[in-house]
Fold:
Amino acid sequence: MAEGGFGCTDTETGSVPRPISLYSRHSQNYVESVSAEICTIMTRLGYGEEMRRWRVAGYREFDRLINASQSTSTLITAGSKAEGLTCFLESDHDFLFLLKNVICLKAGINLYSIPGDLQVYRMDTHMGC
Structure:
């Protein structure tokens, strides 16, 4: 774990506090090699860019198949799954359901311009006392 805090640097006028960090104790080459090693390990564990792209494509295909069989709503995968960060059975599933027969309008929109088969909800964005 990286340690932080303050050390002291002696100057002509006295001691001046300076921040202490992991980077001040190790060479830049060491830090870069550790970073590269962590990247390699994460890729081998399935968290590399290519694997994430495959997961994102898979979740989008899943959404497409589900949406093809539904007529009342549209499903959108969200969260870590949508970003390809987690496998199918890893962690939770976040979904956004868009209801096709519901619309939410701001105050001031003409309600007569909305088709009659939609459920209309008005949203008041003016917070008054």
